[in-house]
Amino acid sequence: MYWLVESSVYSIVQLLTDLTYILELVCTSSSSCTSSLTKYLNSSNSLSSSTSALNNTLTCSTIPVVYSASQLSCSVIQSTLQALFPGSSTATITRSLNSSLSPGGEDTLTQAGLLHDDGQVQMQLWYEGVEQFYCQATGCTQNVVAGQGGSGNGSTWSCPEMECKCRENTLFCGGGTSPSQNLTGAINTLAGPLTIDCFASNTCNFKQSFLVALFGTNGLELSSCSFGECVQQYVIEQALGITSTAASGDDLSGGVIAGLAVVGAILLAIIAVIIWGFVMRRKARRDMNANGSIRKSGGVGIEWKNVGYNIKNPSYTSRWSENVYSFLKGSGKRSNGKSVLVGSSGSIPPGGFACILGPSGAGKSTLVDILAGKRKEGIVKGSVGFTQEDGRGGRVRVGYVDQADVLSPTSTVLETLVFAAQLRLPESIPSSTKIDRAQTVLSQLHLDHIAHTRIGSSEHRGISGGEARRVSIGIELVSSPDILVLDEPTSGLDSVSASRLIRLLKTLAESGTTIIASIHQPSSALYQAFDQVILLSRGNQLYFGRGGIAPKEYFEKKGYRCPEGYNIADYLLEIASSEIDIPPQHNGEIERDSSGETSYTSIEQDGIANQDQASESPLNEKTITYPPSPRSNVILSSRDDNTTATLESQSRIKESWWRWPRSHCATTFLTQVEILSGREWRNLKRDKTLLIAHIFFSCLVGIFAGGLYYKVGITIAGFQNRIGSLFFLGSLIAFSSLSALYNLVEVRRLFLRERAGEFYSPQAWLLTRVLFDVIPLRLIPTILVSCSVVGLSHDAARFFKFLLIIVEFSMGMTLFNFLLACLFRNGGVAILLSSLCNLFLMTYAGFFVNISQIPPVLRWLRYFSTLGYTLEALSVNEVGSGLQIVDSLNGVRVEIGATIIMQTLFGFGMNNYYRDVLVLFAFIAGFAISLVFIVVYILRERR
Fold it and tell me: Label partner for 927 (CA 20 to 30 A): which of 32, 304, 683, 741?
């Protein structure tokens, strides 16, 4: 008897323990899953033994949908049952979909006593904590039912077979005091198909034919249900069609591998180009043709015939497009066919010193531009030839000094001249010799006392205007030009500075350099220094010949008397400015120098000057091919009998416009990059304003962002802040890249002047400019901002993946702003367009507007949003660390992977990280190619 009582007590205790255990299996959080499973995990079924590429984060799913094996507990409140059994009734149901996907596998379920066949359902009904009966169904399938009205998904389990069994001597099964409470017969006969409907409203319906007939359409109604399933995150992601393996980065798709192969090939090509650059520089420096010395000819004169210039008159069909182009470039509407210069002819002997006089608009600058070989946008006609005393063939070096001094403001005078010498003298000349040449010119121009003074700018005072003009002349003199052409060198100078400058030019002419200078209004002393005078009036040449009193005598013969003691220069300017129609000088009246041989270069052209370089002109060469321009490619050929160059057929122009321009720079590409890098580094050290501003504000914004998003939580609101911080970072990079646009606009004039003088190739300048803008002004500040205390993933691998995306986006935005700065002369227009583009990027980034909600007619624009690819990659990288969302909605605890929230709210694909990396790289490549094309073919000095 004692044994029977003890056995009964043990059975009751065991049943209560089983109920407690079952209820504990209905998890409420990931921590409860961890504690419940710890005692069942061992070395053979530990979670860490799963594939490392998968997201093994343990989570508690509290929705009706089953992923592996789920438990639920519901209250049974049914009036018929409560009439017989007024106490508390509870139903627990275990649904097994795929036991092998449970944490720890089937071994864990076996040790817990919960292992069931796949597709099996077991329901237990408890009354006052004691199990009354159980039902078991097999062959079940799950159908996920989409929620209505924004509610979560539900599930329907359909089972073809079910059987139930009473627990003997329990209250429901004959253990009660009343025969009406004995339901053994009814329970044991429950069989046939079973349907279990569970809803997000925490209710379920247990439907079997007998129960439906007894209790109504919904069968046995269950309420206040708690769903719980301990499952690993990758199981949920796979059920939702998300491949965690690709997101982890360990396995790559074929397209990604192909893209990475292309990137690798490009990197190898860059390395090969660098090696090739070293080889070519070494070869050039070993060239003994120059013998390590600076050569200068015995004297070169210049002669021109019937030189004229008309502003191009576009056809009716092209006039509108050219006006639009000119408006966008900021150069205004073009005139229609105005003649600026008509039939100018003249000859200046070697070592000659000539001035061009005339009022404003007479055509002085146009004539000096043509004689110097500058590119013109209109129609140039006539021919230019060069005379030489010793009859030597070769190339004639022509130097040009513009009216405005365009110099590097942070460089010193000596550094400016050394820079010009290093780039304009041949590669074979030693660096020490180049430096000596710069110092010689420095002394020749009497600039020794300011050798280490910075050039300065309007904001930071440096050297004076006269000193700056002498520096500009020195830049041309370091290469020992045969002919030096100057456009109004005395403009803006006081009388003393102008007098010193003219005396300097006179000294240069006496040393064998041919000097041509346009003078606006010279004093009597300045006028007397010139050997020859050219007088222009409204584009017509009124006089060319000897200086001094010769022009006075010429015009007095024509009836224009000069008052006694009157300044002859002012007298000539009054004649040129008068309203009297004075006939131009005839060719027969022009004095010519007959010494030496003459080589004429025809410059008759349509739209642009044929010489791409201002520093050299052809002389006595069999075939002379000039670099193509964006609008023409003029090819000159020389004949032996009279060495006169003529134009070939214009059909050749249309066939070869795309050819890459040949470089006539004196140094190799690698040397150009090296010298340019030295100047950029000096500029960065001496003018730290922009660098300090970028770093300071980056730190300031980083602190602000850290406070704004300080330790973002793992709630839904915290996840929104987490993505918001990434969007904030991307927007900051986009707008801070505007400084790259302004920087390029500032140095544009200096680049155009130095390119026209063939200091370096445009590719070398562009590469150096990008490197010294991206690294100190983009990457360093970006890294500082990225190190804020927002609370992103601290995994080193993910941080570097994060950094890769940030660097790509920063480079892309920098190149894009460079592109705008090169396309538009007006910096304000470029900045406006860049700001509007940033607004577009933000709109289609997927943060403000859900991309899937945008109308299809506008949705395709998202493919051009680099910020969208950046935000997606950063979000995927962050979520891929196993981020879990734990929150409470209307009192209901929610614990779900951040992957699902990310896909639902923003539409980001979990597998798109490496795709986004390659897309951003493609944008960088596209911007870079476009930028190189524009800089090489379009960004040229035109007059």
Answer: 683
